[in-house]
Structures are given as C-alpha cells and as structure tokens.
Amino acid sequence: MLTVGQKFPSFSKTAVVSLEKGKEFETLTSDYLVNDDNVWTVMFWWPKDFTFVCPTEIAEFNKNFGEFRDRETRLIGASTDSEFVHAAWRRDHDDLRDLKFPMLADTSKSLAEDLGILEPTEKIAYRATFIVDPTGVIRWVCVNDLSVGRNVAEVLRVLDGLQTDELCPCNWEKGQETLTV
C-alpha cells in the first residue's frame, strides 16, 4: 500500500459530478491534485455502491463539505463501481442526490491497485482515506476494514494538524497550542 511521503499515482478517471442531464460526468486526472494555489485533496474510497455503511460515510463527508472547503481542501469520493452505477445510486439515495464533490469511478481497478487498497478476495476497495498535499504527496493514510465506517471529524483533525506544518501532540485539535522544541 502506498503510504506517507509517496507521490499519489497518476490517473485519469471518469467521475460523476452532477445529476443534471448532459452534465453528469467529467474526467478527473492526477494533475487535479497538484497545484500552486495551496489546495489540498482528500480522496476517500468505499467498497461498493448500493450498500449500507458506505452512504453514511459519503453523506457525512458531504455534510462537512464546507469544513473541507474552509481548509482549502478538495474532496473526491471513489470506488471501483462505474460512473453509471454512481449516477444511479445518487439518483436513488436521498442522502446522495446533492453531493458537492465528485464520485470517481475506478472500474479498471487500476488506481485502487496502484494505491494497494484492493481487498484480495472480492477485488473491491477497502475504506481508505488519503490526504494529499498540493505537491501531490500523500501526507496521511487511514484504512478501515470493509465493515467499519470512518470518522470524518478525525480526517478534519489530521488535516488541520498537517496544515499547521508544526508538531501537534496527541489529541491535538485546531486552536490548541502546538509543540515547540
């Protein structure tokens, strides 16, 4: 599995960005992650569309979209399902209709494989979260097993800590003192 300090892999994938007819899909590439505007990226993966735990996580990321935006951070959700399945799920599920971030489709599973997050039996993505800095370098990775949802507040806490570029002690939260050496 790719880890902290490694470059996020190159990719070009279709993503669902809207439910408006004719504007549903866009191509996202790894170039999207690298920028001079100091914009970070959080890419989070779920195993399968039309399941039970996954929409709770996606809805919670969406609920916190403004928190990520306030931190100059893009959100990208992803799974190995197709863009058509993503679009159908968004239309079908009340909590997913108004998503403010793209749902990336990795149908070839190449990006999940490059990241090292494919579950070996079913070949679906683990619940992996990557925080990527504006240079395209992975700064944090967290992976949950298939049955356990992640904590979006913890993703925000770690993002805050990384963005200070300082030493943050255990349980540190934004606004608290950082460590001085």
How would you summarize the topology of this molecule?
Blueprint: E1 12-16, E2 25-29, E3 40-45, H1 53-63, H2 65-70, E4 73-79, H3 83-92, E5 103-105, H4 110-115, E6 127-132, E7 138-144, H5 152-164
Parallel strand pairs: 3-4, 4-5
Antiparallel strand pairs: 1-2, 1-5, 3-6, 6-7
Your description of this structure?
- The chain has 181 residues and is an alpha/beta fold.
- The protein has helices at 53-63, 65-70, 83-92, 110-115, 152-164; strands at residues 12-16, 25-29, 40-45, 73-79, 103-105, 127-132, 138-144.
- The chain has a seven-stranded mixed beta sheet with strand order 2-1-5-4-3-6-7.
- A hairpin with a 5-residue loop joins strand 6 and strand 7 (138-144).
- The relative contact order is 0.21.
- The model has no long low-confidence stretch (mean pLDDT 96).
